[in-house]
């Protein structure tokens, strides 16, 4: 058949199928023309439509494509399978692997997928991001870990190794590689076995540290200061505080409806009403003014497309600077401005809250509920009372205790 004959069939508009030889057919169905190739694979007849139809694909090009399909079928290569493979997103490099892991797994199963994403982009990407997946060896993983350990960030080394293992396990699931280059490494090769911190501030520590914070307000901003005051007096987690909105507060009833982060097995995942002492309300009222109309208590200090409240690292870095720790690769660290006390972290303020509640004689089950910890065993199953009044008294006593030092 030639072009004139094909054009005549199209004008007629009837459903037809004409053979052009070599397994190639010209078909019109519902007034739509197409090229179809019939072939035999594993002893069974099958057919496939070519990706372009006449006249976008000429008779000569269609015959050439049909010949290739028929020859491949003779060698056991099914064109339908090959086409399905081509439809899948190509994942060759580690950067492409991470993006697939992030989109298909982290976003679906992680409460905070930005955390492993941050570890990849800050610690792994510059070493192996452009490499093909199969070219990554255990030596590359060791170099990543050693670089982190040499900067004395042992917990970061452990977390990076953990996420590297998970990411390359994802590659194995997708049959992109046959082994995990990070699998043989253990915490001994990274930061070592991590021990739970026991640091809690004494009242003298609180008085000294918060006095220096106020004096160095040009480094440790007022917002950071108030955030630390709230963490100390409420016992909440940092992530819960920095992500909260003003709509979560009822100042008339003095209640914060806190939505917990789902990251610790010891923490209840149910929302909890946290009672607010007069001192805490006064800090929140100041933050309300400083928020300048933002929906968030701690609005982002830089324009960000990711979220409208401050980064997870903001308070950590601010506190680390006060102890002379280098947190910005482009700047020299400040001198240690708190030389008289042992360094502490933002999370240590939560532990301090719990310790001070114990010093005040708060019953254990009340103190644990103040921190929204799960109560273990049968008591946790059957005792569903929220002890709001008891928690209110406990947190007011705590505020009264530390207020003179804040």
Could you characterize what this model shows?
The protein is an alpha+beta fold. Helices cover 48% and strands 9% of the residues. It is built from 16 helices and 7 strands. It has helices at residues 3-12, 59-74, 79-87, 94-109, 114-128, 138-150, 154-173, 203-215, 222-234, 238-242, 278-291, 314-322, 346-359, 364-370, 377-382, 388-402, and strands at 16-21, 24-29, 32-41, 44-49, 249-250, 255-258, 272-275. A hairpin with a 2-residue loop joins strand 2 and strand 3. The longest helix is centred in the middle third of the chain and has 20 residues, at 154-173. It starts with a helix and ends with a helix.
Task: Summarize the helices and strands and which ones pair or pack.
Layout (H helix, E strand, L loop, with lengths): L2 H10 L3 E6 L2 E6 L2 E10 L2 E6 L9 H16 L4 H9 L6 H16 L4 H15 L9 H13 L3 H20 L29 H13 L6 H13 L3 H5 L6 E2 L4 E4 L13 E4 L2 H14 L22 H9 L23 H14 L4 H7 L6 H6 L5 H15 L4
Antiparallel strand pairs: 1-2, 2-3, 3-4, 5-6, 6-7
Helix pairs in contact: 4-5, 5-6, 5-7, 6-7, 9-11, 9-13, 14-16
Give the strand order, joined by hyphens, for the main sheet. Answer: 1-2-3-4
**Contiguous uncertain segments of 5+ residues:** 379-384
- The oligomeric state is single chain
CATH H level of the largest domain: which superfamily?
Answer: Intergrase catalytic core
In whole angstroms, the N-to-C terminal distance is 92 Å
Number of helices: 16
Share of helical residues = 40-55%
Gyration radius, to the nearest Å? 32 Å
CATH structural class of the largest domain: Mainly Alpha
Strand count: 7
| Shape summary | elongated
> From the helix content, strand content and strand pairing, which structural class follows?
alpha+beta
Largest sheet: 4 strands, antiparallel
- CATH architecture verdict of the largest domain: Orthogonal Bundle
Number of domains: 3
Order of helices and strands: HEEEEHHHHHHHHHEEEHHHHHH
């Amino acid at each position: 058949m030639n072009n004139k004959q094909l054009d005549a069939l199209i004008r007629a508009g009837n459903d037809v199928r004409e053979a052009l030889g070599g397994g190639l057919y010209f078909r019109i169905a519902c007034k739509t023309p197409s090229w179809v190739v019939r072939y035999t694979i594993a002893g069974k007849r099958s057919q496939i439509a070519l990706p372009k139809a006449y006249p976008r694909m000429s008779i000569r090009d269609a015959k050439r494509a049909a010949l290739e399909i028929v020859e491949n079928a003779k060698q056991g290569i099914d064109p339908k399978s090959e086409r399905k493979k081509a439809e899948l997103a190509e994942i060759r490099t580690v950067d492409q692997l991470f993006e697939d892991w992030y989109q298909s797994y982290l976003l679906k199963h992680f409460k905070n997928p930005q955390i492993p994403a941050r570890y990849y982009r800050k610690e792994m990407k510059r070493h192996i991001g452009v490499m093909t997946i199969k070219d990554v060896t255990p030596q590359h993983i060791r170099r990543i870990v050693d670089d982190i350990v040499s900067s004395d960030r042992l917990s970061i080394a452990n977390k990076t190794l953990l996420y590297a293992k998970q990411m390359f396990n994802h590659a194995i699931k997708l049959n992109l590689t046959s082994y995990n280059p990070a699998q043989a490494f253990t915490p001994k090769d990274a930061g070592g076995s991590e021990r739970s911190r026991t640091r809690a501030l004494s009242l003298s520590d609180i008085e000294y540290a918060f006095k220096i914070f106020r004096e160095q307000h040009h480094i440790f901003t007022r917002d950071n200061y108030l955030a630390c005051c709230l963490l100390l007096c409420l016992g909440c987690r940092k992530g819960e505080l920095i992500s909260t909105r003003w709509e979560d507060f009822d100042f008339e009833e003095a209640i914060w409806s806190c939505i917990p982060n789902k990251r610790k097995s010891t923490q209840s995942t149910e929302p909890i009403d946290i009672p607010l002492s007069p001192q805490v309300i006064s800090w929140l009222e100041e933050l309300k003014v400083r928020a300048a109309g933002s929906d968030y208590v701690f609005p982002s200090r830089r324009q960000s497309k990711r979220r409208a409240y401050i980064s997870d690292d903001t308070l950590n870095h601010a506190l680390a600077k006060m102890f002379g720790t280098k947190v910005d690769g482009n700047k020299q660290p400040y001198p240690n401005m708190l030389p008289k006390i042992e360094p502490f972290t933002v999370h240590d303020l939560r532990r301090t809250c719990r310790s001070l509640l114990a010093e005040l004689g708060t019953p254990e089950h009340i103190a644990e509920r103040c921190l929204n910890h799960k109560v273990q065993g049968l008591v946790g199953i059957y005792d569903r009372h929220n002890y709001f009044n008891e928690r209110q008294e406990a947190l007011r006593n705590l505020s009264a205790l530390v207020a003179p030092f804040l």
